[in-house]
Amino acid sequence: MSDPRQYFTFADNGEPLELDCGRSFGPVTLAYETWGRLNKKKSNVILILHAFSGDSHVASHEDADLQANGPGWWEAMVGPGKGIDTDKYFVLCVNILGSCSGSTGPSSINPETGKPYGLDFPVVTIGDMVKAQKKLIDFLGISKLYAVVGGSVGGMQVLQWCIRYPEMVRAAIPLATTMRHSALCIAFNEVARQAIMTDPKWRQGKYPEDDPPELGLAVARMIGHITYLSDEAMHRKFGRRLQERDDLSFRFESDFQVESYLNYQGTKFVRRFDANSLLYITKASDYFDLNKEGDRAINLLAGTVTKFLVISFTSDWLYPTYQSRELVQALKRNGCDVSFCEIHADCGHDAFLLPDERLINLISGFLNGVENDE
Question: How many other C-beta atoms can be found within 10 angstroms of the C-beta atom of residue 118?
Fold first, then answer.
């Protein structure tokens, strides 16, 4: 099985990446994957930005040697003839800075010590992630992006791209996202971080690869996973059904199916994600704020030619529709060309990841409209 990821390393020649925290950092490696063909003008590039625990594998590859890697996290949306049509567009997805799926993060080896960075890794922001992505785009010789698309934390990156590099982005599709975290989101993230940091195996971030803080990370994932669902979805999927028994155990076991499901999700997550990366990425999302009083970064979009499609979902209580409406209003105040759609869905925040013909047609139609404006 071949690795579909490609790797780009920069900031390793005396030109470090200048981070928002004030630190200079390098070297930096970004893992990325591509689909489709780049046209001669390099004008058909769609950059897809993943959510907090995602990676670069947004869809399966047609190459037989890469098919064994299986479907991607947005398989229903990306591919030949799909909503984001890889017969028409050159699709690029980059694993974010601070993650653990090929890009430089706290689990990467610090060249100065020969050991994982751990908490010596700098605190990064959504802006830093986008700044690193821009280095890759420059390396690939791409001067303009046909569209940037992303949901949740990926949607934050979409907005950051539009603010930092407005001349490069023709169209933007932020889904199920926000201009800044509410107190509720910050609270959930802090509980998740505390679950990890109070696990004795965390060892102040210096845990060995073969003995990570599994319990703390699993609990953190369970907390997060609850926020991705909705009351309707959980009722439909689990209700109060018992797990493989006819009566209550009267012990502290997983009596209910929903308990067993959350335990399974936590255990599965531990096998693929790094605990320190969760700390860093949730902190970056908490720091994100485009509507800060006295320093509204969203106002930098005044006069931009970027076309926006903002999408929310009715049952998303993590980033509810009122936050998308606030984003739309801010874009309109700045004279932006913006369309908005709230999709009725009962599956919560995760709705943007699930197969939905309405969403597929909406995104496909919007992208075709951008093309017709050429």
Answer: 17
Q: Which domain holds residue 197?
A: 186-282
- How far apart are the C-alpha atoms of 80 and 103, rounded to whole Å? 27
Last residue of a domain, one of 282, 302, 319: 282
Same domain as 209, residue 62: no
Is residue 232 one of the residues assigned to a domain?
Answer: yes
Residues 11 and 147 in one domain: yes
pLDDT digits (tens, 9 = 90+) for 246-274: 789 898 988 999 999 999 999 999 999 99
Q: Could you tell me if residue 1 is inside a domain?
A: no
| Residue numbers annotated as active site | 152, 316, 349
The torsion defined by the Cα of 209, 350, 148 and 179, in degrees rounded to 10, comes to: -90
State both tokens at 266. Answer: 């936590």
Q: From residue 122, how far is each of 166, 203, 273, 283, 285 by CA, in Å? A: 27, 18, 19, 11, 15
* Spatial separation of the C-alpha atoms in residues 236 and 250, rounded to whole Å: 25
What's the DSSP call for residue 95? P
Do 66 and 112 lie in one domain? The reply is yes
pTM: 0.96
Report d(CA 91, CA 24) in Å as an integer: 30
Query: In this structure, what token pair is assigned to residue 165?
Result: 């590099």
SS3 assignment for 150-184: EECHHHHHHHHHHHHCHHHECEEEEECCCCECCHH
SS3 of residue 141 by DSSP: coil
